[in-house]
Every structure is written in structure tokens, then in C-alpha cells.
Write a structure and sequence with these properties.
The structure is a homodimer of 139-residue chains.
Chain A: H1 4-17, H2 27-34, H3 38-50, E1 54-57, E2 63-66, H4 75-83, H5 110-126
Antiparallel strand pairs in A: 1-2
Helix pairs in contact in A: 1-2, 1-3, 1-4, 2-3
Chain A binds a DNA duplex (30 and 30 nucleotides) through helix 3.
DNA sequence: TTATTAGTCTATCTTTTTTATAGGTTTTAT
DNA sequence: ATAAAACCTATAAAAAAGATAGACTAATAA
């Protein structure tokens, strides 16, 4: 399961994407709208900013905004940033690989093979679906 | 990522599957073979037994054994038992569903829709692949 | 029938991760 | 100047993960 942090991030990003034309959006507005602790959300948005996904403006009239159009922000990127590996096992992770401590040879490990396929099937979706694809439907 | 518990369970089950013809297998043998803490493994095997996946025999000549042939034990079952939900979000979990606290209506939530697809693609593999499919390749 | 073997059960403990909060600092618009 | 709002760092509380301990029970063999 994705952590609350990542879940909150997605909801916040959706709100920002749905209001791209309104200039910087307040943390407090997002927090209220999406029912998220404001202080926790603050940390999350900051992390997204430091990763170059969000921009911000301080002072009156400030807030957060997307640095790129929603269709250019892949879901996989957000997950990896806040949650780490998408794969179910360290030994099949593309970005956070770790050697398996429990098997002799990954090259012939059937678990490794199957979990690699699960990873691929998840990535096929998560690398291609973007913020744009998770905006509210039918609206 | 799967917990160590689930990872250990898979490796242990593979060992049991690869030795089905040798009668009950000792916890200690599995622990040594797969490099797992024996006491931790003890708890895991017990849980698998209580779930009806393994059987056991006490005393000399005792040990653990599979209750069904490897090809009848789906990977999804093991994951759900020891790790819980396979889905990335509570609101798309089939077995551990929880209402989303951060969106107004799941029926029109795009995140819900995409994560549902990720779940389906993972389940398509994990429900159909069994212990038999994760035995050591080329042997 | 006793000693040994091996799983059973329950509790606890340690460490890590997750989730959340607190409070001061800096920047910007008016 | 003042107020608004993000920035930053630290810490704390809670939960989960990972691991260990030890007494108990059942089966087997001598």
C-alpha cells in the first residue's frame, strides 16, 4: 500500500491540477479541501517542490503551483519520490535494487521472475498515466 | 514492497515445494538453507499452518509439509495472508476495502480508477501464478 | 516409560518507519 | 511596517516490522 504521505500528495496534486488557471494555491486551501493535516501537508509539498515538481511563491498572494502541465507528470515519479520502490521485492526494483539475501542465484529464482512481471505490469500503467489522467472523471 | 515476513514465507514455501517427496521438513533446515532467523521463521510457518496452507508433524521425523500440490497455491493468497492488501490504495482493495477519506466521491475519482487498473494487472499475475511457477528455473 | 525431538503458543522487546506537530525564520505584497 | 504565507528543522507519538525468549505439548524411539 502507498503511504498516507503519497496518498495525500496525489490528492494535493490533483487539486493543483484542477486549479492551474488560478495562480498559486494556499496549502491551507488544499488541506481543507482534501481533509489533510495542514502541517503534514506542508512537509509533503515542500518535498515535491525540492524535487522540482512544484513551484511556490512566498508572502501575500503566494502558494504552490505545478512546474509542468499535468500531462507531463507521471504517477510513478511521485510514488518513487515519496514512497520509494514500486516493485514488490528489492531484487526486482529498477530504482532501489538490493541483492536477495535468501536465494543462491537471482538469475534462476522463479520468484524473482514472477515479481519482475508484476513490476512491469504496474509500471506500464504508472509510467504512462499522469496527473491529467487522475483528475475527476465526468467533469 | 512485501514485508520480510512474506518474502521469507515465499522462500520457505519454495523449499517445501522442492522437497515434497521427502516427507516433513525441519524448520531448522529451511532456516539454514534460506538464511532466515529460525525463531522468526517458526512464527511464519505456524501462521501458514493455521491458515491451512501447511501441515505439520511433531516429534522425531516431524516437520512441515504442504497441504496441497504447489500448483494449487496462488501467490496472491500468501501475500494477502501475511501482508494484507495487494492494492496500492485502501479504496481499491477487494479484500481490505476502506472508504477514501480525502475525496468526495470514489465513483468519479480518477486516482481510484487508475489504481484499480494497477490492482487488476497485479492480480492477473498473482492470482494465476502459483508456488509451482516460482520454483527454481532451469532445473 | 522415559528421554529426546520437534512443533506450539504467547509474550515481550527492539528497531524502524510512519504520521503528525511545534515553533521560529524568511520572503513578499501592500 | 505589517501581515501573509511559505520555509526549515527538530521532535514526538504511534504504529508496524523484525526478531527473540522460554515454557508447553505431542510424537517417537530406546
Amino acid at each position: 500500500m502507498l503511504s498516507k504521505k503519497t496518498q495525500y500528495a496525489f490528492h494535493a496534486l490533483v487539486h493543483l491540477a484542477e486549479n492551474v488557471d488560478k495562480g498559486p494555491i494556499l496549502i491551507s486551501e488544499i488541506a481543507q479541501e482534501k481533509n489533510i493535516s495542514i502541517k503534514f501537508l506542508e512537509n509533503i509539498l515542500l518535498e515535491l517542490k525540492n524535487a522540482g515538481i512544484l513551484g511556490s511563491k512566498k508572502g501575500k498572494g503566494g502558494g504552490y503551483y505545478l512546474m509542468r502541465p499535468p500531462k507531463e507528470i507521471a504517477l510513478a515519479k511521485i510514488i518513487r519520490l515519496l514512497d520509494g520502490p514500486i516493485a514488490l521485492l528489492p531484487c526486482v526494483s529498477l530504482n532501489y535494487y538490493e541483492r536477495c539475501e535468501n536465494c543462491r542465484d537471482e538469475a534462476v529464482c522463479g520468484l524473482n521472475e514472477v515479481m519482475g512481471k508484476v513490476r512491469d505490469s504496474a509500471l506500464k500503467i504508472l509510467e504512462n498515466k499522469t496527473l491529467k489522467d487522475i483528475l475527476t472523471r465526468n467533469s
